[in-house]
TrEMBL record, chain A:
InterPro entries found in the cross-reference section: FAD/NAD-bd_sf, FAD/NAD-binding_dom, Ferredoxin-NADP_redctase_2, Pyr_nucl-diS_OxRdtase_2_AS
Protein name: FAD/NAD(P)-binding domain-containing protein
Keywords: Disulfide bond, FAD, Flavoprotein, Oxidoreductase, Redox-active center
Entry superkingdom: Eukaryota
Classification lineage: Eukaryota, Fungi, Dikarya, Ascomycota, Pezizomycotina
Gene3D superfamilies attached to this UniProt entry: FAD/NAD(P)-binding domain
Species per Swiss-Prot/TrEMBL record: Paraphaeosphaeria sporulosa
TrEMBL record, chain B:
Record InterPro entries: Thioredoxin-like_sf, Thioredoxin_domain
Domain (Thioredoxin) ranges: 1-114
Swiss-Prot/TrEMBL keywords: Disulfide bond
Short name of any one Pfam family annotated for the protein: Thioredoxin
Family membership: Belongs to the thioredoxin family.
TM spans (from-to): none
Listed PROSITE patterns: THIOREDOXIN_2 (PS51352)
CDD domains associated with the record: TRX_family (cd02947)
Coiled-coil regions listed: none
Source lineage: Eukaryota, Fungi, Dikarya, Ascomycota, Pezizomycotina
Name this polypeptide is given: Thioredoxin-like protein
SUPFAM superfamilies registered for this protein in UniProt: Thioredoxin-like
Superkingdom field: Eukaryota
């Protein structure tokens, strides 16, 4: 298993390593996302998985066996010469929180701007400070409420005129005394100290209806504006939807290429839960195992010769099995 | 060859500065994924380049040693800083390294290792 070395800037273990508490994974009343991933890794290793902390740089799925190449650890520009091959492939590269590419974003990234309130929100620099969250969905609500524990005030910028979050979540947000929601509002520019490693101090915001711009005090800016699946590696090789998610056969995790399976958020933009990903991971593993067994000629089945249906010679004649086809 | 030091307060760290010429510090947190990923690499650098009394590799848990984190204004995890005789110094032009940047960290450790070996007369 290639866990990657900070592939796309996320530690191995993916989004769960930046999730504070998981409350809907069966068997755990509550568990830290990072801890859950540590335990999954341990379990996987105990089952004999060889885990390699390198990121896959390139794949070639045109012919079997599939070919792939790696980045040296911590170096995403170089590609190793060594060619590796695989008979079957399970893709579980996940998804990553989106950025907005605002002016000032790069300069103040890590100095006030973050895509993860739960990871960075408790840093001393944010205590008792005014903070801003951008987004109107459930994750924006979660992030904003999390930040209220330490912040002085949290302003939530919602692009449209209403929240996209569930009704319960929306109510939690609108009734919170420390939260100020600005509808029809977008961020325009991040401002801050000019010196090197200077901190963010202000955010320019704009009302999308009146076009009026305003500068507000903000020591922290947290994005909660959706996710991008990590599928650049498979572009033009596997079928994807308009958002770049891999298209799989529902309930089977098979992709447009036989022998390539996909599991987790990389093929799921709807549920995106730790448990649904674990579930599709299990499906992909079982399907891959079955597929590999089917490819292996040395595992012969006595019935195999017999279970072929006779091709109907004329249209309309239902083919007949001489024995039950094996599932 | 030297073990990683774990100063748990500002005075601990100052004691380390007093006893060791060069000190590299890894500011980390238990819940930080990138910190975890680079930890084995950092441990390896310590083993490879550490020289008792001359170059120490330390790890500071920012949640447990909040006085250290505040004193050095740590803003991201992991952050790596370098010190000579207790004063923060830039290595290879970097005042600090933010993030699990293997390349820069490796180069910085090598540079410090070279300086330390020269100083220790190895």
């Amino acid at each position: 298993m290639y866990e990657g070395f900070l592939a796309l800037g996320i530690a191995a273990g993916g989004q769960l390593t930046t999730t504070d508490e998981v409350e809907n994974f069966p068997g755990f009343k509550m568990i830290q996302g990072g801890k859950l991933m540590d335990q999954m890794r341990e379990q996987s290793e105990a089952c004999g998985t060889e885990i390699i902390s390198q990121t896959v740089a390139k794949v070639d799925l045109k012919a079997k066996p599939f070919k792939y190449w790696l980045h040296p650890m911590g170096d995403d520009e170089t590609i190793e010469e060594e060619e590796h091959t695989a008979d079957a492939l399970i893709i579980a590269t996940g998804a990553k929180a989106r950025r907005l590419d605002l002016p000032g974003e790069d300069k103040f990234w890590g100095n006030g701007v973050s895509a993860c309130a739960v990871c960075d929100g408790s840093l001393p620099m944010f205590r008792e400070q005014p903070l801003v969250v951008i987004g109107g969905g459930d994750s924006a609500v979660e992030e904003a409420l999390y930040l209220t524990k330490k912040a002085k005030k949290v302003t939530v910028l919602v692009r449209r005129d209403k929240l996209r979050a569930s009704r319960t979540n929306a109510r939690r947000l609108t009734t919170h005394p420390k939260i100020d929601i600005r509808y029809n509002t977008s961020a325009v520019e991040i401002k801050g100290e000019e010196k090197k490693n200077g901190l963010m101090t202000q955010l320019v915001i704009k009302n999308n209806v009146t076009k009026e711009e305003q500068t507000i005090e903000a020591k922290g800016l947290f994005y909660a504006v959706g996710h991008d699946p990590a599928t650049a590696l498979f572009k033009d090789q596997l079928e994807m939807d308009e958002d770049g998610y891999l298209i799989t056969d529902p309930g089977r995790c098979t992709t447009s290429i036989e022998g390539v399976f996909a599991a987790g958020d990389v093929q799921d933009k709807r549920y995106r839960q730790a448990i649904t990903s674990a579930g599709s991971g299990c499906i992909a593993a079982l399907e891959a195992e079955k597929w590999l067994a089917d490819q292996d000629d040395s595992i012969t089945n006595e019935l195999e010769v017999e279970n072929q249906a006779e091709k109907s010679q004329t249209n309309g004649v239902v083919p007949e099995y001489r024995s039950n086809p094996l599932l | 060859m030297a073990d990683i030091k774990h100063p748990s307060s500002l005075s601990d760290l100052q004691a380390l500065f007093a006893s060791t010429t060069y000190v590299a510090v890894d500011f980390y947190a238990d819940w930080c994924g990138p910190c975890k990923q680079i930890a084995p690499y950092y441990a390896n650098l310590a083993k490879q380049h550490g020289v008792d009394g001359t170059l120490a590799f330390a790890k500071v848990n920012v949640d447990n040693a909040q006085d250290i984190a505040a004193a050095y204004r740590v803003q991201a995890m992991p952050t790596f800083m370098f010190f000579k005789e207790g004063k923060q110094v830039a290595v290879n032009g970097n005042k600090m390294i933010q993030g699990a940047d293997v390349k820069s960290l490796g180069a910085a450790a090598e540079k410090l290792g070279g300086l330390a070996k020269k100083k220790a007369g190895l």
